């Protein structure tokens, strides 16, 4: 399985240098509640929803603290933003309930929320100015580049440690690498690696803002920084070759045509009625249109972030849980998450929005299920729909799963075939990683 094949990448020394082992957890490390409390302090966010308008008004005055040029900001090292945070599931059983699923393991959706909060705090640590108690920057998640898991099960009664630091910096964006480890028999063993991209904006979250440059200190850090550049180029290449911009390759066109031929109902041939619409499902297969689930979420103030928009981690959790349910109902057995990739935050979600989520199984191979979740907000006043996110999840099922098959076909490549090819591309990229 993916978990046996998963290359346990050696933790970069900048991340590993302060990792310690111990059966008693890690005393003195901040926990996730402290992470969220620190974030509120950094931007001056109120815990009272009624005060949020005033709090955001007060942030306008911080405009004067923004740098006019990146060169005016002091360079930072990777270790300047390095953080370790504990999730004391073992040593503090009272917090376990929030993280527990029905299979007596940890809810991965909760981990997504924690990674999102930690990634933002790491970036605020990188950009911190000693003389400024409040940051003039609004730092938000732009992209979850990838999250690769190396363990099938996350145990609900063992402490978890998150580590991370800024690994690459552009003019106004930062790449953050995070690792999650879990305590077993006195040692922390790796569970997942995550790469997020954050962007800095002005105090009102309207325009880009400059961030401190990053200076690698060792050959190892040079390599990490160079990888950040390569990640950026890979994302640009992937976007340029998107099926929304370019036609499928010759190989992909053949794949779709082969599927069409394999699903053609040849029984109609003798009657002279065979056509594009004469289709039959092959054995052990499911039409794509029968492999989807939908959900609606009302976005309450409880789910707001420090800027009084809906928390990106909450959106990821809801999308993941719908994606998991889709994979579960499709495969007929418990699915395990293998990888999350290419989550683009296209548009913020306002408090009070109606959030519509649509999950689609778009590609399958052996035990693997590739699920795409489309997220959009519906404005009841204007009756308009706006896409906010597209999520991509790769699951592995306990049993081999049916082949998912796009049904529609014609002179042009319709949407289901495009979703199938896009899912195959994402799956292939994930398999290369692990």
Automatic annotation (TrEMBL):
<dbReference type="InterPro" id="IPR029069">
    <property type="entry name" value="HotDog_dom_sf"/>
</dbReference>
<dbReference type="InterPro" id="IPR006683">
    <property type="entry name" value="Thioestr_dom"/>
</dbReference>
<keyword id="KW-0496">Mitochondrion</keyword>
<dbReference type="InterPro" id="IPR033120">
    <property type="entry name" value="HOTDOG_ACOT"/>
</dbReference>
<keyword id="KW-0719">Serine esterase</keyword>
<keyword id="KW-0677">Repeat</keyword>
<dbReference type="Pfam" id="PF03061">
    <property type="entry name" value="4HBT"/>
</dbReference>
<dbReference type="GO" id="GO:0006637">
    <property type="term" value="P:acyl-CoA metabolic process"/>
</dbReference>
<keyword id="KW-0378">Hydrolase</keyword>
<dbReference type="GO" id="GO:0005739">
    <property type="term" value="C:mitochondrion"/>
</dbReference>
<dbReference type="GO" id="GO:0047617">
    <property type="term" value="F:fatty acyl-CoA hydrolase activity"/>
</dbReference>
<keyword id="KW-0809">Transit peptide</keyword>
<feature type="domain" description="HotDog ACOT-type">
    <location>
        <begin position="81"/>
        <end position="204"/>
    </location>
</feature>
<protein>
    <submittedName>
        <fullName>ACOT9 thioesterase</fullName>
    </submittedName>
</protein>
<dbReference type="GO" id="GO:0052689">
    <property type="term" value="F:carboxylic ester hydrolase activity"/>
</dbReference>
<feature type="domain" description="HotDog ACOT-type">
    <location>
        <begin position="289"/>
        <end position="401"/>
    </location>
</feature>
<comment type="similarity">
    <text>Belongs to the acyl coenzyme A hydrolase family.</text>
</comment>
């Amino acid at each position: 399985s993916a978990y046996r094949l998963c290359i346990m990448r050696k933790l970069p020394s900048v991340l590993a240098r302060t990792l310690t082992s111990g059966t008693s957890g890690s005393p003195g490390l901040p926990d996730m509640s402290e992470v969220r409390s620190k974030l509120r302090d950094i931007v001056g966010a109120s815990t009272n929803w009624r005060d949020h308008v005033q709090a955001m008004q007060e942030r306008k005055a911080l405009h004067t603290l923004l740098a006019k040029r990146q060169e005016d900001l002091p360079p930072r090292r990777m270790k300047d933003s390095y953080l370790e945070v504990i999730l004391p599931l073992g040593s503090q059983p009272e917090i376990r309930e929030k993280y527990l699923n029905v299979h007596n393991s940890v809810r991965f959706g909760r981990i997504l929320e924690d990674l999102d909060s930690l990634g933002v705090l790491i970036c605020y640590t990188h950009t911190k100015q000693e003389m400024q108690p409040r940051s003039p920057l609004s730092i938000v998640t732009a992209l979850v580049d990838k999250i690769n898991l190396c363990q099938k099960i996350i145990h609900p009664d063992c402490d978890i440690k998150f580590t991370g630091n800024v690994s690459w910096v552009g003019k106004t964006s930062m790449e953050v690498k995070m690792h999650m480890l879990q305590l077993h028999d006195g040692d922390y063993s790796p569970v997942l690696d995550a790469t997020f991209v954050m962007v800095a904006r002005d105090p009102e979250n309207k325009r880009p803002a400059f961030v401190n440059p990053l200076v690698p200190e060792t050959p190892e850090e040079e390599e990490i920084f160079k990888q950040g550049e390569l990640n950026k180029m890979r994302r640009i290449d992937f976007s340029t070759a998107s099926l929304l911009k370019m036609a499928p390759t010759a190989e992909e066109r053949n794949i779709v045509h082969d599927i069409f031929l394999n699903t053609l109902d040849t029984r109609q041939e003798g009657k002279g009625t065979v056509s594009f619409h004469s289709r039959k499902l092959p054995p052990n297969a499911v039409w794509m249109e029968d492999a989807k689930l939908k959900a609606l979420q009302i976005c309450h103030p409880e789910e707001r972030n420090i800027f009084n928009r809906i928390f990106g981690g909450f959106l990821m959790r809801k999308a993941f849980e719908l994606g998991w349910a889709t994979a579960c109902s499709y495969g007929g057995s418990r699915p395990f998450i293998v990888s999350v990739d290419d989550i683009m935050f296209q548009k913020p979600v306002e408090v009070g929005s109606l959030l519509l989520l649509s999950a689609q199984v778009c590609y399958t191979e052996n035990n693997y299920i590739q699920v795409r979740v489309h997220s959009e907000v519906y404005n009841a006043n204007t009756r308009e729909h706006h896409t906010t996110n597209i999520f991509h999840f790769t699951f592995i099922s306990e049993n081999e799963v049916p082949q998912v098959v796009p049904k529609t076909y014609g002179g042009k490549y319709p949407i289901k075939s495009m979703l199938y090819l896009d899912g195959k591309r994402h799956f292939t990229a994930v398999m290369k990683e692990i």
